[in-house]
């Protein structure tokens, strides 16, 4: 008796230390009364006992505490949930989390839904099915059971693409035949049609689809079945792409008008960014010339130029730009600023044929060669030191490129101001900061010390001044005062690779269909929200500080839109 009281006291102390609330049933009195009351019931409950073992009293108390915490989650107080309800909830949760259905044993037929796969049957055929087909199959078997007492079994399965035609038979040779998929008008299986739709909208080629199906063993739709619906998909995809482009134009205009009203300016038109993408690496048969809105970055114009339009691929961009402006004229869309990657033909066309449009060249293409050009004045032979290069300039090649970006960004659209800021690069390295911007650190920080060699030698100053004046930005400042960056167009060209591999030669019709798919994909997902920004050091870009956005997953609502149009075509024919 003394041992029992000692154990109870130790248990109570452990529970108090582990923040377990002491209950009346811990004394044993209330528990006995409750058990006796249960035995006196007309329908006495059946008791059960689960015994468990732990290595220590603390482990036992910890497990009991977990039980109490689960009970509190199930009801307002621990006594509101019985141990039976607790075990039911925990077991059901575990089974469901492992993909095992938990049914009501009182209402369910004793049937094991969990079917293990033996090694010998791991290579059996796989079929796609639909909900309505499963119901139809069950109805056929049920109808047979009403007239025949013998069970049915699978007698024969014929595969049609990804679908199976199943024949059930019993000992009396009664048969029930059912398909694993419903039929569309014309007899096409719905499951096969959905697979054709998935391949057409994903950018897969038939050879890739065939390899996937052969490896997975899910059957294969013939190439002829794809060709039967090819024209329909081309037409519907082109229609959706045109609607998407028109919607992007309307949104770009609306955004531009709002921005002009906020700035107190008159709306002059939308700003666009253009670039050409060749279908092949050399002498391309087709080229895409795309125009993105500078504000919302969606496709507002896209034309495909083939050899039938222009046999020389190097001229495709100029031909495409002319067609883009024909497209904008037909849509009554005015263009204010046209940014591109400094194509000389486009510069000439805008200067002569489209004088109302402001020409702007890409800043990246203008500055990508600055480091290489500046390297010429940082190293050289001893004989040419002080003539073509100077050792005091060895640490300034990369930073001059940054200064050029900074000047284009802060010139406020003034050619004169842009040149003055470029000229001030030399003064800045001379440690003279009178003309530097007021918000610059060299003006704000009283303890500022230059991180580069201070220029004192007149030869070094002369060489650097001469090289800056030879920059393309300095020679033609009017093309760079708007600081236009076409990196979104380059990103679009990369996104198109999902649908158009440069190593594959597509026909003109297929090439255009894939271009339309890329347009729909881009317009739906560009500038989508992101969850966070990751900052990490990259050895290839040691000066990068902007971070990397972790974007939300892409959506593919355009595939659903194409499917609805295809269904409308099938049911209306």
UniProtKB/TrEMBL annotation:
<feature type="domain" description="Mutator-like transposase">
    <location>
        <begin position="141"/>
        <end position="280"/>
    </location>
</feature>
<protein>
    <recommendedName>
        <fullName>Mutator-like transposase domain-containing protein</fullName>
    </recommendedName>
</protein>
<feature type="compositionally biased region" description="Basic and acidic residues">
    <location>
        <begin position="1"/>
        <end position="19"/>
    </location>
</feature>
<dbReference type="InterPro" id="IPR049012">
    <property type="entry name" value="Mutator_transp_dom"/>
</dbReference>
<feature type="region of interest" description="Disordered">
    <location>
        <begin position="1"/>
        <end position="40"/>
    </location>
</feature>
<feature type="compositionally biased region" description="Basic and acidic residues">
    <location>
        <begin position="29"/>
        <end position="40"/>
    </location>
</feature>
<dbReference type="Pfam" id="PF20700">
    <property type="entry name" value="Mutator"/>
</dbReference>
């Amino acid at each position: 008796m003394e041992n029992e009281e000692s154990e109870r006291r130790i248990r109570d102390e452990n529970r108090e230390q582990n923040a377990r609330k002491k209950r009346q049933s811990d004394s044993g009195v209330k528990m006995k009364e409750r058990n006796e009351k249960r035995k006196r019931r007309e329908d006495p409950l059946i008791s059960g006992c689960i015994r468990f073992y732990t290595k220590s009293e603390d482990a036992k108390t910890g497990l009991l505490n977990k039980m109490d915490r689960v009970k509190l989650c199930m009801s307002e107080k621990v006594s509101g949930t019985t141990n039976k309800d607790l075990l039911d909830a925990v077991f059901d949760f575990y089974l469901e989390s492992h993909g095992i259905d938990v049914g009501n044993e009182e209402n369910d037929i004793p049937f094991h839904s969990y079917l293990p796969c033996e090694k010998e049957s791991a290579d059996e055929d796989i079929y796609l099915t639909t909900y309505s087909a499963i119901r139809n199959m069950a109805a056929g078997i049920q109808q047979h059971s009403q007239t025949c007492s013998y069970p049915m079994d699978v007698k024969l399965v014929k595969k049609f693409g990804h679908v199976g035609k199943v024949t059930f038979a019993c000992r009396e040779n009664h048969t029930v035949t059912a398909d694993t998929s419903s039929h569309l008008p014309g007899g096409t299986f719905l499951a096969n049609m959905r697979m054709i739709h998935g391949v057409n909208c994903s950018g897969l080629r038939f050879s890739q689809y065939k390899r996937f199906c052969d490896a997975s063993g899910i059957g294969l739709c013939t190439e002829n079945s794809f060709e039967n619906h090819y024209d329909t998909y081309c037409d519907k995809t082109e229609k959706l792409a045109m609607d998407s482009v028109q919607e992007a134009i309307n949104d770009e205009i609306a955004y531009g008008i709002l921005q002009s009203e906020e700035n107190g300016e008159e709306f002059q038109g939308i700003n666009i960014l253009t670039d050409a993408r060749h279908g092949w690496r050399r002498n391309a048969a087709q080229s895409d010339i795309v125009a993105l809105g500078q504000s919302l970055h969606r496709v507002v114009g896209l034309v495909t130029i083939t050899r039938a339009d222009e046999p020389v691929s190097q001229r495709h961009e100029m031909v495409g730009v002319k067609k883009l402006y024909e497209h904008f004229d037909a849509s009554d869309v005015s263009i204010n600023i046209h940014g591109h990657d400094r194509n000389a033909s486009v510069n000439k066309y805008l200067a002569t044929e489209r004088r109302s449009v402001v020409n702007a060249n890409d800043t990246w293409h203008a500055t990508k060669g600055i480091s290489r050009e500046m390297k010429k004045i940082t190293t050289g032979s001893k004989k040419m030191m002080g003539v073509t290069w100077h050792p005091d300039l060895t640490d300034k090649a990369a930073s001059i490129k940054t200064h050029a970006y900074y000047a284009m960004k802060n010139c406020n659209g003034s050619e004169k101001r842009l040149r003055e800021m470029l000229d001030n690069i030399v003064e800045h390295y001379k440690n003279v900061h009178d003309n530097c911007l007021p918000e610059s650190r060299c003006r704000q920080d009283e303890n500022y010390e230059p991180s580069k060699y201070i220029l004192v030698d007149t030869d070094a100053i002369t060489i650097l001044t001469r090289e800056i004046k030879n920059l393309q930005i300095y020679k033609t400042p009017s093309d760079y005062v708007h600081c236009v960056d076409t990196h979104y167009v380059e990103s679009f060209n990369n996104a198109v690779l999902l649908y158009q591999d440069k190593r594959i030669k597509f026909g003109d019709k297929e090439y255009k269909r894939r271009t339309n798919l890329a347009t729909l994909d881009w317009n739906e997902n560009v500038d989508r929200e992101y969850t966070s920004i990751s900052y990490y050091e990259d050895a290839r870009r040691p000066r990068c500080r902007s971070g990397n956005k972790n974007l939300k997953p892409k959506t593919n609502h355009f595939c659903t839109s194409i499917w609805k149009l295809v269904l409308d075509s099938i049911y209306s024919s």
